[in-house]
UniProtKB/TrEMBL annotation:
Keyword list, A-Z: Cell inner membrane, Cell membrane, Membrane, Methylation, Transmembrane, Transmembrane helix
Entry-linked NCBIfam families: gspJ, IV_pilin_GFxxxE
Top-level lineage group: Bacteria
Predominant location: membrane
The protein's name in its UniProt record: Type II secretion system protein J
Source species of the chain: Pseudomonas endophytica
Segments traversing the membrane: 6-31
Record has Membrane as a keyword: yes
C-alpha cells in the first residue's frame, strides 16, 4: 500500500494567501497613516518655527528701540511699523554709530523687514513670513489706550507708547496676538 501524500489542499492555500494579503493591506494602510501624520506634524512644526522666528525678530528690534529728544524712534502709519534700533541697550545714553532704521510691512501676503543704517547704505530686505492674510499693529498710549497710528511732528502724542501689539494671521494660524512691552514706555 502506498502512503497518502501529506500536504495542504488548494482551498487551504487560497485561504492562507487571502489572510496574508489582508494583513499586508492592513499593515500598509497603518504605515501610510503614520507617514501622513508625520508629514503633517512636520509641516505644522515648520510653520510654527517660521512664525516664532518672525515674532522673535520683531521683538528683538522693538526691544532695541532707540529714542532721543530729536527723534522719537517709532512711527506707525497705515499698518506699517517704522522704528530706529540700536544694536544693544545703552544705559549711559552715549551716541552709537550702529543705528538702523527698520520698517515692517506686508506686500502680496509676505511680511517684509527693511533695514538701513543711518549713513545711507543700501536697504537690506528680509522676507520674514509668507502667506500673511492679515496684519495689524497697535501701540498703547497711557492716556488714550490702544492707537492704530502713532504719527510724528505736531500730531505726535506726548510721551512714548507703553506697548506694541501685533495681531496677524499666517497660513494655518489664525489671529495670533503678541504684546511687547516697550523699553522706553515703562
Amino acid at each position: 500500500m502506498t502512503k497518502p501524500q501529506a500536504g495542504f489542499t488548494l482551498l487551504e492555500l487560497v485561504i492562507a494567501i487571502a489572510i496574508f494579503a489582508l494583513l499586508g493591506v492592513a499593515c500598509w494602510r497603518l504605515f501610510d497613516g503614520v507617514i501622513r501624520a508625520e508629514r503633517s506634524s512636520s509641516a505644522h512644526e515648520q510653520a510654527l518655527r517660521d512664525v516664532q522666528r518672525a515674532v522673535a525678530l520683531i521683538e528683538r528690534d522693538v526691544l532695541h528701540l532707540q529714542t532721543s529728544a530729536k527723534h522719537l524712534g517709532l512711527t506707525l502709519n497705515a499698518n506699517q511699523l517704522n522704528l530706529r534700533r540700536a544694536n544693544w541697550r545703552n544705559p549711559l545714553g552715549q551716541p552709537r554709530s550702529e543705528l538702523q532704521d527698520v520698517s515692517y510691512q506686508v506686500q502680496d501676503g509676505v511680511l517684509w523687514r527693511y533695514s538701513r543704517d543711518l549713513e545711507g547704505g543700501e536697504v537690506q530686505t528680509q522676507k520674514l513670513l509668507s502667506d500673511v492674510s492679515d496684519l495689524r499693529w497697535r501701540l498703547y498710549d497711557r492716556d488714550v489706550g490702544w492707537r492704530n497710528a502713532w504719527p510724528t511732528g505736531k500730531a505726535a502724542p506726548k510721551g512714548m507708547p507703553q506697548a506694541l501689539e501685533l495681531q496677524f494671521s499666517a497660513g494655518r494660524f489664525e489671529q495670533l496676538r503678541r504684546v511687547i512691552l516697550l523699553p522706553e514706555g515703562g
